[in-house]
TrEMBL record:
Residue stretches making up the SnoaL-like domain: 2-121
Cited SUPFAM superfamilies: NTF2-like (SSF54427)
Superkingdom field: Bacteria
Protein's name in the database: SnoaL-like domain-containing protein
One matching Pfam family: SnoaL_4
Length: 134
């Protein structure tokens, strides 16, 4: 990956929070491939396929959506086939001020010269130290 690619992929991941928090769900195709897989199994939501399904799920969640999605700790790993695996941490701020932490595990592809997320798995962080007893 070039430096420009790394910047573009980082910007792609960060842009998610800006679009969702602004309610610009019609712009999700700027971030995801049309056939994206969005794994929400850890939240009891199953797996969504396609941008329209992600948009519909966000609209159905309504007021229960976080008001702030903040991404940090992005680590990019180039795969042998040219795809990029991105692992990052997410902090969600709810309207009542409560917060939550998640792990985003993304597979990012380049199509027509543009980077897009083709698979996203979101896992809630519910226990310190990964839940491993010490």
């Amino acid at each position: 990956m070039t430096v420009d690619d790394r910047i573009a992929v980082n910007d792609l991941i960060h842009e998610y929070g800006h679009l969702v928090d602004a309610g610009e769900l019609d712009r999700l195709a700027e971030l995801f491939t049309a056939d994206v897989t969005h794994d929400l199994i850890d939240f009891g939501q199953g797996t969504l396929t396609g941008v329209a399904a992600i948009r519909s799920a966000a609209l159905a969640l309504g007021e229960a959506n976080p008001v702030g999605h903040h991404v940090t700790n992005i680590v990019l790993t180039e795969q042998a086939d040219g795809r990029v695996r991105a692992r990052s941490k997410g902090i969600g701020i709810m309207a009542d001020g409560t917060t939550g932490s998640v792990l985003y595990d993304d597979l990012i592809v380049r199509r027509d010269g543009t980077w897009r997320i083709s698979h996203r798995k979101i896992v809630a962080r519910r226990a310190p130290l990964g839940g491993v007893p010490r």
